[in-house]
Design goal:
single chain, 444 residues, mainly alpha, Serine Threonine Protein Phosphatase 5, Tetratricopeptide repeat, 2 strands, globular, TPR repeat, Tetratricopeptide repeat protein 38, TPR-like_helical_dom_sf, TTC38
């Protein structure tokens, strides 16, 4: 029996524990390649149950069926080894099983429970935050981390990661001042912490501080970009700052040189690619043949139906390229998912299906139908996960659809909402000018 670097008991030997800490560190930093490190560890220490549980959890939380078989194999081995593991390790294995079985909420609560009992279990804290993110639970992103903070000191290994996670939770809960301070401190502690840098980017995105946001991401990139499995998302944030400054050419260069650098081999990468191109395409910008790269990502996944958030972003690519057969496939996938059990059934039914239908309507030029499908889910979109910045694409699409539909009242309402959040945004001001051209006389 031994322990990890933060004192959590492990049922493996000291050498396996040391190597597990090293692989876990890469996961905490979202650096390449923790799976390769775990494979090497397991080749020599095949009875390390936490290595199998970590491997399964990393693969499972990609929300990508492409990795499901590999995740299942690791989980089955972890379950075989679990009887000789301690209670904390067994709880980790059980959490991954719940996630793999489609109970994302139950898995997230189990990881949260592990963190309550073992507040320095950084893996439990991180998995809990990932679960809250995929569930769109904004306040739990803050509160689940706040529960464990009193058990951490600045000299505790990994303190910066907890601070960065708390920063993201504070931002999603709307506490921007504290979020920015915590995020900046976490980056100062560990410049490689891309999650902490991304928390600060979220603050600036929500506050409409595009120029500052771009400068911050550019200045911190030498720390978080090298060897990062998360850099594509931070480059996406930088691209959004460029779009808000009307520098479309810079945003497209980032797509070409950075965001698409991984070839969109994972659904999470495809989400950011679709989200950027859709924003530009909706505004009428020419994105060239860039959608083809997203089609290569989404076409093999259009029948997966594991996470409605993915399906909606797949629909963006198919709507923008007018692939009606693929659009029908996505709608069918969402309908089947909605009829099943599990967390994704609710996500697909409540948000995914109407939102994907609205995006498809926008793509075929039926803007009134787009508004009719999308507007009712505007207030409950958190149910299908993601961050405020990611779900902002809903308001973005509604503004453009309302203006194109010719519905003056709806256009004025959507633009007024946008201006209240980002008054100085050139994109919002552009919508305001167009809406004003449609304006009706105000009744006396």
């Amino acid at each position: 029996m031994t322990a990890d670097i933060r004192g959590n008991a492990l049922s493996c030997g000291a050498e396996a524990a040391r190597r597990l800490d090293a692989a876990s560190l890469k996961f905490h930093n979202y650096l390449a390649d923790p799976i390769a490190d775990l494979d090497a560890l397991l080749a020599e220490h095949p009875d390390c149950v936490m290595a199998q549980a970590l491997r399964a959890g990393i693969l499972a939380t990609t929300t990508d069926r492409t990795f499901a078989a590999e995740a299942a194999a690791s989980l089955e081995e972890a379950e075989r080894l679990a009887p000789r593991a301690n209670a904390r390790e067994q709880a980790h294995v059980a959490a991954v099983r719940q996630w793999m079985d489609g109970d994302l909420s139950g898995a997230t609560e189990r990881w949260g429970g592990i963190a309550i009992d073992h507040p320095r279990d950084l893996l439990a804290v991180q998995y809990g935050q990932l679960g809250d993110f995929f569930l769109g639970q904004s306040h739990m992103l803050r509160d689940r981390v706040a529960r464990v903070l009193p058990s951490w000191r600045r000299d505790t290994p990994g303190y910066g990661f907890v601070l960065g996670m708390h920063a993201f939770g504070l931002e999603e809960a709307g506490d921007y001042t504290r979020a920015e301070a915590a995020g900046r401190e976490a980056v100062a502690i560990n410049p490689r912490d891309g999650w902490a840098a991304h928390a600060v980017a979220h603050v600036m995105e929500m506050q409409g501080r595009a120029a500052e946001g771009a400068a911050f991401m550019q200045s911190t990139a030498p720390g978080w970009a090298p060897d990062s499995l998360f850099a594509y998302h931070n480059w996406w944030h930088l691209a959004l700052f460029y779009v808000e400054q009307s520098d479309i050419a810079a945003a497209l260069r980032l797509f070409d040189e950075r965001i698409s650098a991984g070839g969109f081999g994972q659904a999470l990468e495809g989400i950011d690619g679709s989200a950027l191109l859709w924003r530009l395409w909706v505004l009428g910008h020419d994105v060239g043949d860039r959608w083809s790269k997203l089609l290569a990502c989404w076409s093999p996944r259009r029948n997966h139906g594991v996470y409605a958030f993915n399906d909606v972003h797949a629909m963006m690519a198919f709507a923008a390229t007018d692939d009606r057969a693929a659009q029908d496939d996505v709608i069918g996938t969402l309908k089947r998912a909605a009829a099943r059990q599990g967390t994704n059934a609710m996500m697909s039914r409540d948000v995914g299906l109407p939102l994907a239908s609205g995006i498809a309507a926008f793509g075929r030029g039926d803007y009134r139908a787009a508004v009719a499908h999308i507007l009712p889910v505007r207030g409950i979109a958190n149910r299908f996960g993601g961050s405020h910045a990611q779900r902002d694409i809903i308001s973005w699409t509604l503004c453009e659809a309302a203006i194109r539909s010719g519905d003056t009242a709806m256009a004025e309402a959507m633009v007024a909402e946008r201006l209240s959040a980002k008054e100085r945004s050139p994109v919002a001001q552009g919508w305001a000018i167009r809406a004003k051209a449609m304006a009706r006389p105000i009744a006396a």
